[in-house]
């Protein structure tokens, strides 16, 4: 069973909180709230998204790299992480 399946409830809860935070930004913009408030909301979202990304990345490394069933599977997992990091760091 994949780590995202085992941790599905917790991960989905974090995603739903992120969705709520994005909706708060939308409401703040519609209400013409001060830009400082909006920037604070956005900073919170970035932190939450970074935390979620880190958690899934850590679990991926643990399950698919450290506990890989074969060298081929390990290389595939490392390739996936490499591709994600290239996209993330752009």
TrEMBL record:
Enumerate the GO terms in the molecular function aspect. Answer: DNA binding; metal ion binding
- What is an example of a Pfam family matching this protein? Trns_repr_metal
Q: Which domain of life is it from?
A: Bacteria
Membrane-crossing residue ranges in chain numbering: none
GO BP annotations, alphabetical order: negative regulation of DNA-templated transcription
Similarity comment: family membership: Belongs to the FrmR/RcnR family.
Q: Which PANTHER family match?
A: TRANSCRIPTIONAL REPRESSOR FRMR, TRANSCRIPTIONAL REPRESSOR FRMR-RELATED
Q: State the name under which the record lists this protein.
A: Transcriptional regulator
């Amino acid at each position: 069973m994949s780590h995202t399946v085992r941790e599905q409830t917790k991960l989905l809860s974090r995603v739903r909180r992120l969705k709520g935070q994005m909706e708060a930004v939308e409401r703040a913009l519609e209400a013409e709230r001060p830009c400082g408030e909006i920037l604070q909301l956005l900073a919170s979202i970035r932190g939450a998204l970074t935390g979620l990304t880190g958690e899934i990345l850590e679990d991926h490394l643990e399950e698919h790299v450290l506990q890989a069933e074969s060298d081929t599977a390990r290389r595939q997992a490392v390739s996936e992480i490499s591709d994600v990091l290239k996209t993330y760091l752009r």
